[in-house]
Write a structure and sequence with these properties.
alpha+beta
Length: 179
């Protein structure tokens, strides 16, 4: 793949326009497109220091700018050229076997939380990230994690009750082999 830095103006504009940004990426997308259209070499050089394709540039710019809220000021690229916006986990609070609150702390002391959860009918999880709401106080981070778990359970309970799902998870007759 040829890096976008080697493209001429019209081809660069076409490559940028091929990318469809999500709502959080629109500002960076518009900045990049406008800089190229107006031949703003300083802005182009800044934006293109984040990657070699419109997708990588726009996503890395967004992650970098969001990371500023958490005190991350350097561009830390991984081996694939992406900026990872994940603060290190400082505490892992396990609630039962399948529910965990992860508390990450950034360089400026702000916290971010994420949860892993499982109800038997549904579940999910992720790592704390700069895309989470920054939380200044540790106890507030714990409260937020508990609130998030409660919301997930309340939603799954309401959906389960409204659809009158069979709560029997294991049904030996549903397997293609005999038991």
């Amino acid at each position: 793949m040829i890096p976008i830095q080697k493209f001429r103006k019209q081809k660069k504009i076409a490559a940028i326009l091929e990318y469809t940004p999500c709502h959080t990426e629109r500002k960076a997308f518009e900045q990049y497109l406008l800089a190229v259209r107006k031949d703003n070499t300083e802005k182009i050089a800044y934006l293109e220091s984040f990657g070699d394709s419109p997708q990588r540039i726009i996503r890395n710019v967004c992650t970098y700018e969001r990371g500023l809220l958490f005190g991350y000021t350097d561009k830390r690229f991984d081996e694939h050229g992406w900026i990872r916006g994940m603060p290190p986990i400082v505490e892992r609070i396990e609630l039962g076997m399948l529910n965990t609150i992860f508390i990450g702390q950034a360089v400026n002391g702000m916290y971010a939380i994420a949860i892993n959860w499982c109800t038997g009918h549904a579940g999910g999880g992720r790592h704390p990230s700069v895309w989470d709401e920054p939380i200044a106080v540790y106890k507030d981070a714990i409260k937020k994690g508990i609130t998030e778990l409660e919301k997930k359970y309340a939603y799954v309970t309401s959906v389960t009750n409204s659809k009158k799902l069979d709560c029997n998870i294991w049904n030996p007759n549903s397997y293609p082999f005999s038991m």
